[in-house]
Design a protein that fits this description.
The structure holds two protein chains of two kinds. Chain A is mostly helical. Chain A is built from four helices and no strands. Chain A folds into two domains: 30 residues; 64 residues. A six-stranded parallel sheet of chain B has the order 3-2-1-4-5-6. The chains are: A mainly alpha, B alpha/beta. Chains A and B meet through α1, α2, α3 and α4 of A and α1, α2, α3, α4 and α8 of B.
């Protein structure tokens, strides 16, 4: 059963367009005080690139591809792990300021 | 079937990312926001192992090795980043964000490299998109590493040469030309062409970032964050993975908006940040400042403030570095009890990341109505008796107003130098992160209180308390 998603160019453009608007809308209502953790949080989100890197590595058929794929997964995993920890630590600091709001 | 599961997990993850980012938009829900996004990520990464069930025939003999390599890379990458992220000081956060972001760009470039090297035939469109993502990702990687080195103090001086703009343009054009050659090459680009393309792309990222001053780094990091998002989105299209496309493009758009907001906070256009420092900057700027820095005792400064009517505190990076914000607020409370009108003036890029300083002050218990933004407080400095600058430097440097040759020229600053008396608490005589001398420190109305901010604040608290006890007795 071939259930893999088939992307036509037009559908890809639709996805990109809607995602861009979503990103813009989600961020545009954020108070300036939250900009630092938000930058870090969005940094974490693009860590999903590690999934693509895993796909590339699994399909590597020669040693240069394996080396590059390995590097890709390594770097992507660093993006995910670091992005998460750093964002969580920063948001931890926001707890008192959140409490202050009546 | 396995692809369906990966795709469904990707769909769920994309939803959780957007929902998580949305929750991060309010301080009340922000912490649950990152957890929601983190759950989505864990889900989709685990599901990605199902890709191993359908690999190309050419890769089948290597599958065992490849899966093992993936596990090792995941463990090493996650482990290292987790360990570093837990340990890194909050003050060093900007460079860590830069580094993690660069890694994401590198991963996107690596995906493209594998796709270019693989013998699977790509359509011209896929190849073009892969190359575009590779270029952006590679620039983001090398540029972020340079930004990290600058913020981490490993690369202090902006590197500028004559004709830098031309050189950068040539390198970029060469990279684009090689990309075009790779696109037109029959039978796909060879390893030599691919390698040359990546070398040029990486070189461009380095060359583009080197001349940009330290004060502009937060804007640049935000820009590279958007770039990585875009690169991830493009590679997502090449791999036919909508989750990557959505997550990448959401970050690309959000990052672009954040970048523009930050540039606006510094009253500069993005083009100004990226290109204004190129070319004809005199490196000797600021070396001709007249006068001397005059030291003062912490207790004298404290007592002056105790008997002042109006005091403005300008906190900066050094306050956060010394974790002295608690002690500072203790001191401020003493002043307020004695009837002194105390305010905090926070520069948009204080702490070298927008919003960073507000957080640190709020954590120490400083109420919001005591914290003022630059445009709301700058007119108040001339009527102010004492300004206490703690660990801030570039944001009170008058050179930004007057010295056209200064790398920070054009950045709006807090006009601390216009107050009656300025005390600057500083660790030593070093320059700020922009690498510029500060004329304020040499001004007649300015005294330096040397020492660790926390120790200095403790002394100030003590001095005011001793005064109170004496008065009561």
């Amino acid at each position: 059963m071939d259930t893999h998603i088939v992307l036509t160019v037009l559908i890809a453009v639709y996805i990109f367009m809607l995602a861009a608007f979503t990103g813009y809308e989600v961020i545009s209502r954020v108070p300036a005080i939250l900009h630092t953790p938000l930058m870090s949080g969005s940094n974490f989100v693009h860590g999903i690139v590690v999934v693509g890197a895993m796909y590339a590595l699994f399909n590597a058929a020669s040693w240069p591809e394996q080396v590059i794929g390995f590097l890709g997964v390594l770097l992507g995993a660093g993006n995910v792990g670091g992005g998460y920890v750093v964002t969580e630590r920063m948001l931890e600091m926001f707890k008192p300021s959140a409490k202050k709001q009546p | 079937m396995s692809f369906l599961i990966v795709d469904l997990c990707g769909l769920l993850a994309a939803f959780l990312f957007i929902y998580g980012l949305k929750r991060m938009a309010s301080p009340v829900t922000a912490r649950s926001g990152i957890r929601v996004a983190g759950f989505g990520m864990a889900l989709v990464v685990l599901a990605a192992f199902l890709y191993a069930m359908h690999v190309t025939p050419a890769a089948r003999p290597h599958l065992g090795t490849n899966v093992l390599l993936a596990v090792i890379a995941l463990v090493l990458g996650l482990g290292w980043a987790w360990w570093r992220g837990k340990r890194v000081a909050i003050t060093a956060m900007p460079q860590m964000v830069a580094l993690y972001n660069g890694m994401g760009g590198g991963a996107a470039a690596a995906i493209a490299a594998v796709e270019l090297l693989s013998h699977e035939a790509l359509t011209a469109l896929h190849l073009g998109v892969a190359l575009a993502g590779a270029l952006i990702g590679a620039v983001s990687l090398s540029g972020s590493v340079v930004a990290w080195a600058k913020l981490d103090g490993r690369l202090r001086k902006p590197w500028r040469i004559k004709g830098q703009k031309v050189l950068n343009a040539l390198v970029l054009l060469a990279a684009l030309a090689l990309g075009l050659a790779a696109l037109l090459a029959s039978g796909g680009p060879g390893p030599g062409l691919t390698a040359a393309f990546f070398v040029l792309a990486l070189a461009f990222g380095i060359l583009m970032t080197l001349p940009i001053g330290g004060a502009d780094m937060p804007v640049l990091i935000s820009l590279y964050n958007a770039c990585t998002g875009l690169a991830v989105g493009l590679e997502g299209y090449v791999l036919g993975n909508p989750a990557l496309m959505i997550a990448g493009m959401v970050v690309g758009a959000a990052g672009t908006l954040l970048t523009l907001l930050m540039a606006k906070a510094m009253n500069r256009s993005l083009a100004n940040v990226l290109f204004s420092n190129f070319g004809d900057v005199s490196l000797a700027s600021g070396d001709d400042i007249q006068g001397q820095m005059k030291p003062a005792e912490a207790s004298d400064a404290a007592i002056t403030m105790r008997y002042a009517d109006k005091v403005i505190i300008v906190p900066g990076y050094g306050l956060a570095a010394a974790q002295a914000q608690q002690k500072l607020y203790e001191f401020v409370k003493l002043l307020a009890e004695a009837g002194v009108d105390v305010k905090f003036a926070v520069h948009p890029v204080a702490g070298r990341m927008p919003g960073h300083m507000d957080v640190l002050l709020a954590e120490a218990g400083v109420p919001y109505d005591m914290i003022f933004a630059l445009e709301d407080i700058n007119d108040a400095f001339p009527d102010t008796d004492v300004v206490l600058v703690i660990g801030a430097n570039d944001v009170v440097n008058p050179a930004a107003r007057s010295d056209k040759s200064s790398p920070i020229y054009g950045m709006p600053i807090l006009d601390a130098d216009r107050a009656q008396q300025v005390y600057v608490v500083k660790r030593g005589q070093g320059k700020g992160y922009a690498g510029v001398e500060n004329a304020l420190f040499y001004a007649d109305n300015c005294n330096m209180v040397y020492g660790d901010a926390q120790a200095v604040m403790a002394k100030m608290v003590q001095a005011v308390k001793a005064l109170g006890d004496a008065g009561a007795a």
